[in-house]
Amino acid sequence: MAKAPGGGRQSEKDLKVRVKTSKGRKIGSTLWLQRQLNDPYVARARNEGMRSRAAYKLTELDERFGLLRKGMRVVDLGAAPGGWSQVAAGIVGTTAENPLVVGIDYLDMDPIPGVILLKKDFTEDDAPDMLIEAMGGHKADLVLSDMAAPTTGHRATDHLRIIHLVELAADFAIQVLAPGGTFIAKVFQGGTEHELLAMLKKNFATTQHAKPPASRQGSAETYLVARGFRGT
Ligand SMILES: C[S@@+](CC[C@H](N)C(=O)[O-])C[C@H]1O[C@@H](n2cnc3c(N)ncnc32)[C@H](O)[C@@H]1O
Questions:
Q1: pLDDT under 50 in the chain at which residues?
Q2: Backbone angles phi, psi at 139, to 5 degrees
Q3: Residue 131 three-state SS
Q4: Where, by residue number, is the active site (predicted)?
Q5: Within 13 Å, how many C-alpha atoms sit on residue 200's CB side?
Q6: Is 186 among the residues known to form the active site?
Q7: Per-residue pLDDT tens digits for 33-76
């Protein structure tokens, strides 16, 4: 069994492509490359013109929870390279005349037809207002956060950063969701603070954790799904 960096274990017998360690390539990079070349979601994303394998996490969450419907307004926090925005755009039927999907990331993103993409750090004070303005002042039906802070390697610092991002996303969701709306956020197992969960339970009819099959088994990543926003 090979331990893939930051991900799950891949059985040697399941590998279609084996990558030899070459001079100058670190073992971690070799295993990453091997995992990419053998990952069916990576191949599917390439064949279907999706920008990321992450796109299938939203597709699978949607299949399980029935999140997306035509005409819905969606905010995508941490949108780059744009897989989730692509999935949402395809289902809600957004257009340049009536944009229903707004995404934000501090990284550059190629345009997606009908989607407003802001290049901005979501933790900056003016980011929420910029998103609200981009939505034309309308309430959202779905707030998605796939944001992940870059890790420092210092466990306590990383944990605090992750929690901070989720809390900011949750506060924003409560500010902009229409009654009945849904909030989805990437969290890490063992990392959802009781205080945050209690706050979400107060504001939403149901809250649960879900790990879609496209999320690598060995990764601690999971998604918090809060549905039935009670309204402010
Ligand atoms: C896992 S990727 C998102 C993948 C995306 N859902 C997709 O399907 O293509 C996480 C993203 O969160 C972004 N991110 C992390 N912290 C952020 C912040 N403070 N503001 C904006 N974006 C942030 C990163 O730049 C990264 O692009």
A1: 1-10
A2: -75, 155
A3: helix
A4: 186
A5: 26
A6: yes
A7: 777 777 889 989 999 999 999 999 999 999 999 999 999 999 99
Strand-pair category, 9-10 with 2-3: antiparallel
- Give the model's pLDDT for residue 3: 33
CATH class given for the domain over 51-229:
alpha beta
- CB count, 10 Å around CB of 11? 8
Q: Which of 147, 152, 158, 216, when mutated, tests ligand 1's pocket best, judged by the most ligand atoms within 8 Å of its CB?
A: 147
Distance (angstroms) between ligand 1 centre and the Cα of 168 equals 14
For 196-213, write each residue's pLDDT tens digit.
Answer: 999 999 999 999 999 999
| Overall residue count recorded for the chain in this entry | 232
Question: What's the pLDDT at 36?
Answer: 75
Q: Is 108 known to sit in a ligand binding site?
A: no
Q: Which of 61, 63, 101, 62 is nearest to 82 (CA)?
A: 101
Indicate the pTM of the whole model. Answer: 0.88
Cβ distance 106 to 143 under 8 Å?
A: no
Tokens, residue 150: 């870059």
Is-contact 89 113, C-beta < 8 A? yes
Which helix (H) or strand (E) segment is 181 a member of? Answer: strand 177-188
**Which sequence spans correspond to the domains of the chain?**
2-38, 51-229
Q: How far apart are CA 70 and CA 229, in angstroms?
A: 19
Rounded CA-CA distance 177/180 in Å is 8
